[in-house]
Amino acid sequence: MTVPQPKLADVAAAAGVSPTTVSRVLNDRGYLSQKTKDAVHAAMAELGYRPNAIARSLQQRSSRLVGIIFPTVAHPFYGQMAEALETRLAGAGYKVLLCDSAGRPDRERRHLDMLLANQVDGIITGAHSQVVGDYPGLRAPVVTIDRPKGHDFPDISCDNRTVMRELTRGVIARGARRILHLTSSRDPQAPRLLGHAEAMAEARLEPAVLRPEPSRGWWPDPEQIDPVLDRAWEAAAAPEAVMCSNDLLAAAVLSWARRRGLRVPRDLQVTGFDGSAASRIFYPELSTVVQPYGAMAREAVAAILAAVDGEPLPAGTRELPATIDWRETTRPA
């Protein structure tokens, strides 16, 4: 026999108050004595009453939900970013619907359809496609993470260009002159590429940029990475350092160096970019840019919550300073 779910009226009767008072306790509206609040919560606990979240969201015109769309949560950057966003949103009383688009526009569109059907209060996305920017009649405020191009939404990122310029200067100061920049970006105007090129030009060094063929997944494929590095190393002037546009590429370089019998950093210096917690378990410990995950999450959530309160979304890109953690894969300056 199925036991009927208790209703709001049952809680009111058990607490000795009106249904309106129970509703006010649930929505934290109006002045109520602590004695009344305690009586209502005690009655809810005794009856096993659970508020109807959908009904409350309709009444409040807020779902208290925020959607997050990332191209993958397996990548350390997106995984740590998702954790930082969820923690910040939970502290503000919001729940998260986390969507992994696998880098596929069709999946991203389906996720958007689902999020809007659930009347989310806002969307935070780091997806690489133009699906969100082209979505017709998008009614929820949108903030992007590290995706400044191809849309009019506010974007939160670290100051990629500046910190990559400083990282390159640091590698040059550590004795490297023949520097290979390994990147997954196909955009020649990508900020990290521009910052690297600026520092190389300052030192009157010729930049060398290599773009391996895209891997089948988000993890670098040795079948794509190793031939590129083999050709560079066997050239007349082998690189003295390999600077990577993310930590996963750097991990692939370290793996290749071990297989080739190279000593890092004596034979080859290596740097990454992202600085997620996972980068600390690489061996040797990776010298890398540490992105400001907490500050980026704070800025993105603040923009979404301000929009929920009726304030306009900020325009343009908000670039936050990042730091460089010099570890074991580079020599002392």
TrEMBL record:
<keyword id="KW-0678">Repressor</keyword>
<feature type="domain" description="HTH lacI-type">
    <location>
        <begin position="6"/>
        <end position="60"/>
    </location>
</feature>
<dbReference type="GO" id="GO:0003700">
    <property type="term" value="F:DNA-binding transcription factor activity"/>
</dbReference>
<dbReference type="InterPro" id="IPR046335">
    <property type="entry name" value="LacI/GalR-like_sensor"/>
</dbReference>
<keyword id="KW-0238">DNA-binding</keyword>
<dbReference type="Pfam" id="PF00356">
    <property type="entry name" value="LacI"/>
</dbReference>
<dbReference type="InterPro" id="IPR028082">
    <property type="entry name" value="Peripla_BP_I"/>
</dbReference>
<keyword id="KW-0804">Transcription</keyword>
<dbReference type="GO" id="GO:0000976">
    <property type="term" value="F:transcription cis-regulatory region binding"/>
</dbReference>
<protein>
    <recommendedName>
        <fullName>HTH lacI-type domain-containing protein</fullName>
    </recommendedName>
</protein>
<dbReference type="InterPro" id="IPR010982">
    <property type="entry name" value="Lambda_DNA-bd_dom_sf"/>
</dbReference>
<keyword id="KW-0805">Transcription regulation</keyword>
<dbReference type="InterPro" id="IPR000843">
    <property type="entry name" value="HTH_LacI"/>
</dbReference>
<dbReference type="Pfam" id="PF13377">
    <property type="entry name" value="Peripla_BP_3"/>
</dbReference>
